Amino acid sequence: MRQYAIETDDLTKKFGSHVAVDRLNLQVEQGSIHSLLGPNGAGKTTILNMLSGVVKPTRGSAWILGYDVVKRSAKAKALIGYLPEQPAIYEILTVREFLSLVGRAYSVPKEALERRIDKYLEWFDLKRFEQTFCGALSHGLKQRVVVCSVLIHEPRVILLDEPFYGLDPASSRLFKEFLKAKSKEGGTILVSTHVLEVVERFCDKVTILNSGRVVASGSLEELKTKAGVDDDKTLEDAFLALTRRRKGSQKRLP
Amino acid sequence: MVEYELRMLISTLRLNIRKPTYILSHTALILTCLFIGYCLALAPEYFLLEGYPQVLDESEATALDMLTMLLTFLLLYTVLRGLFDQGLRSYVSQPDFSILVLTPINSRCIVTAKCVRNMASRLFLVVLTFLVLTPISLRLSTPPFLLAAAILSLTLYIEFLQAISFAIHSLSDAFRSKISPRTGKYVKIIALALSVIVSLSIMLSEYYATEFWTRTLTEGAEACWALLPSSLTASLVLGFILGRAEAVYQPLLCLSGFLIGALALMYLFSGPYHTEKFAHHPFPSGSRTPFGFRIGKFIEKHLNWEKHSLIIFAKDLQLSLRGALIDFSLLDFTLMYAVPLASWYLLESFLPVQTVPDLEAKLGPLKAFVKELVLLFALLPFIPSLTSFSREMSRIWLLKAFPIHNRAVAYGKFLFALTISAASLAPMVLVAILAFQITLSEWVIWLILPLILLIANSFGVLVGAYLPPYDLGNHMSLKSIITFFVLLIFVLAPFTFIASVQDNVRRVILLAWLALYSALSARFFLRQAGKGFEKLELREILPHKAEAGDSEPDDEPEENL
Known about the structure:
- The structure holds two protein chains of two kinds.
- By secondary structure, chain A is of the alpha/beta class.
- Chain A is 38% helix and 23% strand.
- Chain A has nine helices and eleven strands.
- Chain A has helices at residues 44-52, 73-78, 95-105, 110-123, 139-151, 169-184, 196-202, 220-227, 235-247; strands spanning 6-15, 18-24, 27-28, 33-37, 59-64, 67-68, 80-83, 157-161, 188-192, 205-210, 213-218.
- The radius of gyration of chain A is 19 Å and the shape is globular.
- The relative contact order of chain A is 0.16.
- Chain B is mostly helical.
- Chain B has two domains: 1-180 and 209-279, no CATH class; 358-561, no CATH class.
- Chain B has helices at 2-17, 20-42, 53-58, 61-80, 82-92, 97-100, 107-121, 123-140, 144-178, 181-207, 211-227, 229-242, 249-269, 275-278, 290-302, 308-326, 329-349, 359-377, 383-386, 396-401, 406-436, 443-466, 478-491, 497-500, 504-535, 538-541.
- Chain B is globular.
- The two termini of chain B are 21 Å apart.
- The chains are: A alpha/beta, B mainly alpha.
- At the A-B interface, helix 1, helix 2 and helix 3 of A face helix 15, helix 16 and helix 20 of B.
């Protein structure tokens, strides 16, 4: 039995000759909110894609609550709720139909599914759009629909890629509160974001990536110590200090 | 702009030529064309060579009309569905389109340049035509200038089809820009109703012939028929086969005139184009097509299956039916079958073919050939299965994230493709029954068709999983051609044995064997398709878009001919 909710062992992904993720060893504890942080091209999305089963690893293994994401992918996927960075949905399904499709794909019993659809539509203020085609919704509303679809089967592990992009402040706060409550109940959340303030206020642990490799991992205090910055400095300072070491001198405005 | 497009075409060709697979597949294609030409020359009963000249002694109308009819079908298909779509897609789906619409280049330049590019790329067909016709020319010892005239006429005809598709789009969009969407909808409905009325009238006139109908349709049809570009091309190709040198220049001039006319129409009406037209969305904000909406609700309510493959099937069915109703492609689809059907009746009822004595006997060889063609018709509807996965586009992440076994996804896609292909084959079979008097006694055909659908669709799903993105808009793409030939030569080859067996007992044994072969092959293809889907990645489906990943390898150039 594996100790962590999310665990990877030398997880590697290559696209042609380009190594997007290089021998990643990641452990995320159950009931925690863990953040992946890194500059563009660091491999964050690819990691989430591999964990969710959307992309197959080139080498190495990953486990979700003890289930290998490649060998026992259906079991692992059933435990995951995945929100990609650019979620495309079926535009000529209505909001309710789309949520119903996702729920049935995750084998949610019919009565429970109807109940949950109503609950999440209410929560995210989508009730009045339930019979509207998804394609006719604005970007923010679509994002809310996808958030509902991620939660519809009540996953134990939630993978989020830039989850708050496009959400209005009220929905964003609601979603954050939901995620915090979920983690207190034992749910595990792995989130990739560029918004450092969100990480500081929202996450328990952070893994900083650069060019597909882990630069540092730990709590905020541990990262500041590793980066050699003072306690009164922000995560941004620690992040820049850690990523700068690998990239050489920081570029300055002319 | 035209120069830029042609340079892009040449650059694509240069990049492709460096690929060994491209060279290999094109060599195979060229050899196949030579082989077809050689076979046609050796087996003339399939090409109006020996079967028809003695018929032509009595009336040349039969052979000429048959060839014209085939080419007219191509014209009808082009206008109604095929290049109609291709014309639009060829400039909207280009990777540079989103950049072009932001530049100050006017729409006329864009449309003209894309049309010229398409016409230039179609010149490859001329090479293929040359390879098919040359062995026939050598066998028949026809004068070289007749071969040149036949090739030139086919070239002009192909280019005319390309140009007319652009012209129709320019014309219809120019017209649409002047009217409201609601009026446009009514115009489409009226057009559909008129087509149905005309088709029904033609059919009914067979049984309730009146002087008015006979005079109007016979005289009108004869006059139109002779002037069609397809008739002109057919007359030149037949002239080449029969070695007749007279009346070569006039049809060629007429065909050139048609091509120039189509280009002029395209140029004239491409002016009012607006970028808004290119970014047309299938449904406006908040709209609900009541009927389409209800169909979706019906499927949601009654096809509420729990089995994973059936969930995928119901989802595809729901989206397709609703999508077809929303974007009026159902109308195109209906017209595509209704018009050829009406044309058959026109030909059989009013054209001079009827005046040929012993028509049935003389049509014998052609009918035998077309009956075999019915099997080929079965190949056409397998096309939806090719796009099983490509149709998902950027939504593929959702399917991949679902806790559904890969094989169940492949089975779901297969079930959907089988349903759609069976439904779309029905009108073709109806045409075949009516036009060629295929009876139920020819039971082998009716038993083979489902087996072909089974094997062709499973093969289509397999190809769709391994060779995305599959663009059905580009019929001349390398993938389409290779898929077609592999299916025809390797997968469906065992079905040809049935033609050589006359004894009913042996036929039954062979059919049982074919059924087993089809079932096992379909199972194998679908298992492999499941594995292909497992390996499938978003970047493969959308090669021109950045994946939702952090890194992006260089895109491969398009493999267009």
